[in-house]
Amino acid sequence: MTRIAMLGSGFIGRFYAESIQGQRSRDKIVSIYSRREESAKKFAQDYNCEHWTTSMEASIAHPGVDIVCIALPNNLHEAAVMLCCKYKKAVITTKPLGRNATEAKRMLEAVEAAGIFNGYLEDLVYTPKFLKAYESVKNGALGRILWAKSRETHPGPHSDWFWDIEQAGGGCILDLGCHCVEIARSFIGKDIKPVEVMCWADTQVKPIDAEDHAIGLVKYENGAIGQFEVSWTFRGGLDLRDEVMGTEGTIWTNTFLRTGLEMFTTGKGADYVAEKAESNTGWLFPVGDELNELGYNHMFADMFNAMEKGLAPQETFYDGYVVNAILDAAYRSAKTRLWEPVQLDIWRGKTGISKDSHLTAYDEDHWLVKEEMTHYGARKLILKHKQTGKISERVQDK
Amino acid sequence: MTRIAMLGSGFIGRFYAESIQGQRSRDKIVSIYSRREESAKKFAQDYNCEHWTTSMEASIAHPGVDIVCIALPNNLHEAAVMLCCKYKKAVITTKPLGRNATEAKRMLEAVEAAGIFNGYLEDLVYTPKFLKAYESVKNGALGRILWAKSRETHPGPHSDWFWDIEQAGGGCILDLGCHCVEIARSFIGKDIKPVEVMCWADTQVKPIDAEDHAIGLVKYENGAIGQFEVSWTFRGGLDLRDEVMGTEGTIWTNTFLRTGLEMFTTGKGADYVAEKAESNTGWLFPVGDELNELGYNHMFADMFNAMEKGLAPQETFYDGYVVNAILDAAYRSAKTRLWEPVQLDIWRGKTGISKDSHLTAYDEDHWLVKEEMTHYGARKLILKHKQTGKISERVQDK
Amino acid sequence: MTRIAMLGSGFIGRFYAESIQGQRSRDKIVSIYSRREESAKKFAQDYNCEHWTTSMEASIAHPGVDIVCIALPNNLHEAAVMLCCKYKKAVITTKPLGRNATEAKRMLEAVEAAGIFNGYLEDLVYTPKFLKAYESVKNGALGRILWAKSRETHPGPHSDWFWDIEQAGGGCILDLGCHCVEIARSFIGKDIKPVEVMCWADTQVKPIDAEDHAIGLVKYENGAIGQFEVSWTFRGGLDLRDEVMGTEGTIWTNTFLRTGLEMFTTGKGADYVAEKAESNTGWLFPVGDELNELGYNHMFADMFNAMEKGLAPQETFYDGYVVNAILDAAYRSAKTRLWEPVQLDIWRGKTGISKDSHLTAYDEDHWLVKEEMTHYGARKLILKHKQTGKISERVQDK
Amino acid sequence: MTRIAMLGSGFIGRFYAESIQGQRSRDKIVSIYSRREESAKKFAQDYNCEHWTTSMEASIAHPGVDIVCIALPNNLHEAAVMLCCKYKKAVITTKPLGRNATEAKRMLEAVEAAGIFNGYLEDLVYTPKFLKAYESVKNGALGRILWAKSRETHPGPHSDWFWDIEQAGGGCILDLGCHCVEIARSFIGKDIKPVEVMCWADTQVKPIDAEDHAIGLVKYENGAIGQFEVSWTFRGGLDLRDEVMGTEGTIWTNTFLRTGLEMFTTGKGADYVAEKAESNTGWLFPVGDELNELGYNHMFADMFNAMEKGLAPQETFYDGYVVNAILDAAYRSAKTRLWEPVQLDIWRGKTGISKDSHLTAYDEDHWLVKEEMTHYGARKLILKHKQTGKISERVQDK
């Protein structure tokens, strides 16, 4: 049994609580901190917490607490982490780790100096689909990974603080891009160094200071490309899709809007309350089990299992720091309009990786460009001469 | 914490164990019974069970056991249930409950006489998609339910005993139809009486005595129709789909073969072992989290939560009995080629329900047949005169 | 160039005209007959026809006409066909051929006696998807066909006469089942005799005399099963799907509601007129090119090409007659609740076909039940002893 | 009737011929030119052409020819166009128009000086799905267009000349990007000026001098963003998908790999010849009617109808020139790693368009950031103060 202090009683805090205390879990939220007394009480009541408080420090310091789960606005992560260090409490933090890599680095160095367990709550690399896809990629089913794209777009976040650049630290790049960047980085290899970023960002629709739409490319040292597409202006629900291209295969995942459950309703049925504001009649595509599909269950299991075994979880503050560093480069690129280097003062992966060779020899004199079966069943080869570079075609009968 | 005795260490027993002891569960399998010592030992080791035995009774009687989970071939369910009654142990049984309604009725009467907790492990009415769809149906999003179809087909079961009609009690009707029948019955209403069944069944491909393909219609007292399509001869994987039609809406679920994860692989990647024999290259459609998608997690949570609270779970032996009675009628119908009545000595739902009226009045003289918007934006009505029965058309400009 | 007389200026007549004179067609509708002068004139103007009339005979007899296309309510087909025979004009008729097999047989015998070209406009066996699927089936990609299901459901037809059982001859079985029956029959083999039908039908929603929902099974002489699912009560659009199971493969087609074009709209865009009354906001699934997707283009090409070459088209009055005979059996079955024989006075296919053997020998003593790859990479065989019938399992290491 | 000279008898020439002379077409290829006599003869025989030749000029000059269709490698377009100008023959050219904008501009100026009909054969803005989607966009169903992405990737072209940078003029950017750029440009508005391009390109897999994978962003004067994703290294077939985001809606199209026809085959069926080398067993996703789905039918209909009516077709050499100018900027950007301006000496659309305002006033003092329905049915507003910029939240009960 793990005893948790939850910091924050908002949308994400409640989502976490549903997962942590769901089904037959042996884990328990023992303390809840919220800035507002009313919210803290309500949460304590709903999730049966023995302790509630409006003092963050009181919650962290509470003797019954094994681990602190930070579910606060981005600008409050650092202060909370520092308190965890002070009280030597294990800590897990919602995404993004910091508002930027400077904050993230301070948090990383602090938890490591304090020697406390630290986990980065990047749920979207814990979704069942990601985990299955990732396993296939690791097994070599896709060959060498060339490109990994992750897309998260929706009509904008629920809580007000996301829309305030001071509290949030940015717009959809920080809010959604942190997911996408870690997904692509995982497929490409977390030990491969991200080297530079090109990003377009704009505020196309919303009356806000931050960006509401952005697209970025992240170049890795081995020549692979990560791509993120993020927006708060998408219409139609929550679009959450990944694509991976490898030399031997392809993966497409759709985690939310097309998962095999389709419903049409005229809306005339009495008492039917729609779960999304975008549409409550016509064709709807609800997700069966949101907590599981979004990765929360597998994420908390990994966190608490790792803590019990004295191991590092799949995602640590170090990963959160790398993600922040990549997003910082994206923000710089959106302004300078240049490919911006990823500044990684701390890098624990490989270095000096060069691009893999991509040449397949056909015979002594030729590289193989392509081999295909024609409509009439013959084998067709396209070859390139190694010396002259001349392209030629050969057709072999069956 | 619930302490379980698992009877059976085969494919399904292991699946159950993965779910029961998965992630952060507080439940524990304390005893494992298998006919073969080697299997019992192996299971005990894999799932860290303190007690293993080749005596079914020893496992059930084991003092540390709160509840017995029967994961045995169909012909062994009854004996196991009777032993649970003897030792007053709570019991949950894999599907189908009996090989027929006679067996099922004896088991139902025995557990009720013994006053023990009983649950029917019909996982497919616990899948996240089913639960979400079911909630919408209960909320009225589909209006009155007219038809519910469930389809389960695949290339045949893994274990040998399924193919032996004596042990299994039947073919794909019993093995797969039990799922489909309970899904449709749930959508239509578990308090609505199933009255008669028409079923076609044949052995089209396999060298077996039982049927390998069947289609059945189940008529309910309120005029709604349940449909099952089951086969052990399907090629392409596990096809698990439901469809529901209501007066105000439609639901389609795809639980296994098209759930939003698509992978193409040439198969050249080293070390890649395919998880299904049907195909290991080309386009594959793996499921992210099989245990959750197939309903095991939600099913065991309901079972153990209900037991702890002293309540009945969503599915009890009574439901298993009703399903067996419907399947018995299907088997009779397949032989007699007639609509066969469902023989329910025990019926606890409504009776005497007549078909709902389906008439919508348009005005004093007319019933409304249809209202639609034409291509050019006008409103078109098709009406039927209440007295004369004459059909007429009215077009109203925007 | 083919010169056509179109009989009927309603919804289907206009659909046909769009196809016949579409794009770069060399064919021309030269005469239009409609009961109402206003409609005839309007059609003539819209499709640039040189001749319009309110006399059916005048249109058929018109000297410039090569072929007559009947797009009239079901009760008027026979009279129109007889006039074509009188004037020795080639004739093609919309589906169903007759209101029943008696009418259909008279029409078939009449056109054959008159020696005129005759085509049955069953568009759904001319859809691009059907044609491609059919080619694969013929090439053996699915092995022996075991089952072919076709489903057509929607919220009810546009024109008033469909709802009048006298004019229409029936409800959704006749209107939609004619498509489904011919699709399944084509996949199974048009030379295989349909022998008996079991059908459930009901009027669940609409205030009409005919059925608005039905499900039927058609047994073929070789043991294959055709299935139709038809309804005028479906909510969500036009659902048009086929499924085929063979010993070596599977086909699924979705011809209308999920074809790869998905649109979400809030409906706030000015001037947007929805094409379907079911829904004009939210997620919509329009078809790109309805005429082509529904088979009209390929159907008329086959008809006119066949006529020019002096050949029979893919679908003739004979096929229409067989379909009517199957549907007659379905109507009888819905009343008698029995499997009803298909009464075919005229049958030009094979007879005396027995069910194919389905036994695969594994070795001298055993039949092979199943072969599969286990999770751990071994080959597992399930066998049945030829003499004893005993089922056994063998696992072979890699 | 249109009488066509086809220049080129390869893969694309044959595809064009199937469409031009397909079904009930009144058009006719009267002359075929091929560099190789054997190919010209074979083509003439297959498509029943009265004239064949190995002299390009002879084919163009042939007196029976109304219009010349150029289906030659990219490096031969210009010479062919110049001959059409010389003989004042109407001309339509396969994509891309030129190998670069310099060539394209010379061709554009030449045909306009010669006063001849000119069409640009960009089939993918003529696909049924594109046309339907485009109509919705024009009708305002998506509101203001923010972003339009087009993706075309496959395992590489069939013919050898594509792989030779001298003949082709480039790699997948030129070959596939020309489609994607025109699709996005059409959705955003062909009168909106493309201003700059950022492009990443690499040769990741193939032993060639040109790029085999590229991603580009095209910024338009009104702030909208076009995106292309192109590759010759994709595994799994031909991936052809578009996505459009507008302020009021979303469009997703899948033109080839997921169109509603799904087939599984073990491959054991005799005589089955697969149509694609990527895979001929397992799950396959054939397209029903390739010619129609890829836009050829609608494209040629538009071309010949426009010519007959003396109008410009939807796509002219001018469009081809704009596309080449955008692609030139993409190639420059891939080298300089900068956003490169699109150099358009000739521009016939709007100029000086500024970014649309995106502010929605909620009341005198506030902009509306977001409105949504909460889980518990209340209306929640997120507002921004016009003066202070402060973000606030308001919840209104039902």
Account of the 3D structure:
- Four copies of one chain form a homotetramer.
- With 398 residues, chain A is an alpha/beta fold.
- Chain A has helices spanning 11-20, 37-46, 56-61, 77-86, 101-114, 128-138, 165-168, 172-188, 290-293, 296-309, 317-336; strands at residues 3-7, 28-33, 51-53, 67-70, 90-94, 118-121, 145-153, 194-202, 213-220, 225-231, 239-246, 249-254, 261-265, 282-284, 340-341, 366-373, 379-385, 391-396.
- In chain A, strands 12-11-7-10-9-8-15 form a seven-stranded mixed β-sheet.
- In chain A, helix 1 (11-20) crosses helix 10 (296-309), helix 5 (101-114) packs antiparallel against helix 11 (317-336) and helix 8 (172-188) crosses helix 11 (317-336).
- Mean pLDDT of chain A is 94; it is low at 270-277.
- At the A-D interface, strand 7, strand 8, strand 9, strand 10 and strand 11 of A face strand 7, strand 8, strand 9, strand 10 and strand 11 of D.
